[in-house]
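2024-03-11 09:14:02 DEBUG pipeline.ingest accepted 1 chain
2024-03-11 09:14:02 DEBUG pipeline.ingest length=114
2024-03-11 09:14:03 DEBUG pipeline.predict start
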Amino acid sequence: QVQLVESGGGLVEAGGSLRLSCTASRTIFSLYTMRWYRQAPGKQRELVASITKSGSTDYADSVKGRFTISRDNALKMVYLQMSSLRPEDAATYYCYVVDGRDYWGKGTLVTVSS
């Protein structure tokens, strides 16, 4: 069983920054690709960023150049640094991992005021 807990969401003005964190309860955290998804009201959940066990990253086109995903395997943490935030970035952000099955955190809400 894996537990994922996100934090760091909040209200920010457009153009501002936030850093989201996700902690994973899994002793072999370092073996897994970690992903951030987001879901805005009335919209489908979408993949925002991913980071492999070796640190390779990938981003949705909509956040490239503005968001950075990183991980600390020793702390079993994955981060999402979000900069130049736009109103359309407002959503609940979820941490996700596959370990035999899908695991999702409960999410952290990001609100961007224009």
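2024-03-11 09:14:41 DEBUG pipeline.report The chain has no helices and eleven strands.
2024-03-11 09:14:41 DEBUG pipeline.predict end
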